[in-house]
Structures are given as C-alpha cells and as structure tokens.
Amino acid sequence: MTDKHKITKLSTRQFLALGCVGTVGLWLAYSDQYAPKMVRELAADAGRAILLPKHTPQPAKWDPNGITAAWLGHSTVLLNFFGLTILTDPVLFMRVGADLGIGTVGPKRLVAPALGVKDLPPIDLVLLSHAHMDHLDLPTLKRLPGKTQAVTARATGDLFNGTKMGQATELGWGEKTSVKTPNGDVRVAAFEVKHWGARWRRDTYRGYNGYVLEREGKKIIFGGDTAMTDSFRSLRGRGPYDLAIMPIGAYQPWVCSHCTPEQSVRMANDAGAKYFLPIHHKTFKLGKEGANEPIRRLEGALEPERIALRDVGETFRLS
What we know:
The chain is α/β, with parallel strands linked by helices. It is 18% helix and 24% strand.
C-alpha cells in the first residue's frame, strides 16, 4: 500500500476529542437551551445589515413653545418640553448588552438610531426607567455631552459611576422631584409599573419606574417598561395627560414582563391620555412576535388620530 492510501490511526485521546467537537457542534446547532440558541442568534446577526431609518429628526428647528417628540428607536425618545430637552432611556449604539470595554455583547439593532450621540442637542434631563441593559446603556451615557442631570429608579444611581453625568436623583414609587435646569424647571413623579429592575441576576434590589412629567400646565406619561397593570388607573385623577409614551413590544413569550399593544392602549386609556406614542418595538429582536406585528396590532386597537407616530425617526408636535 502506498503512502497515499495509508490509513492514519488516531490515538484514543484524538478520537475522543473529535467526538467531543462533533457533539458540541450538534448541541450548538440543534439544542433549544438558552446558551446554544444565543450563540446561533449571534452568529446569524453578525452578517446582518442594520437598516437606516426612513426619517431624521431636526431638533434645531423645533419650536420651544410647545411639545415636540421624536422616536430615536427602542425606548429612546427625544422631547422638547417647552424649551427643556429630555431624553428617555438613551440607547444609541448598534448593540445593547454587557459592555466589555472593547465592545458590547448582546442584541444587534434592526434599525439604526434616528440620531447618534453627536447629533443630539444639549440635553437638560435624562430619564431612566430601570437598569436593564436595553434601557440604561452605559456606552451611551458615557458619551452624552456636558453635565446632564438624570432622574432614575431607586438603587440605580451607582451605575452612573464612570460617566460624565451630573446629578442623578433616585425616585421610588410615589416620590417626586423638581429638576431645575438653565431652560427652566420640570416636575417628575415616579409611579408603579409591573416589571423588574435587576441588571444582573443577583441585584434584585434595584427599582423600576414609570414617570409623569409636568411643565407649563402640560403632562406627559413615560410608561418605561411594563406588563399589564392597573396602576395607571391611579394617575387618572391627576390628569389630564397630553401624551403617553408607552411600550408595545417583546410580549411573546414575555407577557409576564411586557404588555401587548392592546394592553398598552388600555393602560394609557386608564390614565386618560390623549395621544399615544409607541416605543419598545421594531429596534431589537427581543420577542418572537416579529418587528411589524406590534404596530399592526396597535393600529387595530386605537383610533389612528391618537397614534403620535409609527416609525423610527418620526416627529410629533403638540402645540
């Protein structure tokens, strides 16, 4: 037999190693456990292009004598509240997740943010609902310009260490504060929602909020992240509310932590909100319902004239 046709003999160790590689490969390819599913999703995401938004807000042209809101993606809304600029749950990079210093490991955006950090106007107040990484994004917070003030949930102020943020005020349910800025004051009140606040597995002590913003006799609800709850009913007697910024996505199968579009409408109606601005959809693949189902269901549950906007980058003005 020539060298070409010789059969290479494998040692027991080599044979076992090949067997292990094959077993791991099958496990990664077909297992329904969380770890291999995450590896498969990360691999599929690596080559996927991020879509550009169809709309670009132009905050430099906004009239300060009213309310203007632009959806930058996920739960990030840029608000001009009678000349005072507010940014909710700012997440403005291509991934969310664990910040490793050299990059972020976690879900990749489906649609790019409508404005990047460098495109933002000066921010008077950052409003943070809770510590989850798709809401409190340290890479974004570290790059916000100036000494921006923040209102955040109970027991989350320590997460601002290492950022350039100015004063961070923690609020628990039922607590309120008046934030003083060069562009005037805004009153912020925290209320109970149905969610959870831990950033990691063990820090379950952290809070989670919805908020009511009040200025110049107008009121805005920021629902943050929530499952269906009756707590919005308690807001009704303190209204009326001109706008409710409400989550509508990631409910399948996480309806225990996130509301459906129909439930979100019910909560906004419980509070007595006039207009409805949908968030927490079409940006990251967090639920199994798909990118377009939430807005379709919302349109079937709410009068079209009450829907403030529908797509990333759109702007809504309320005079």
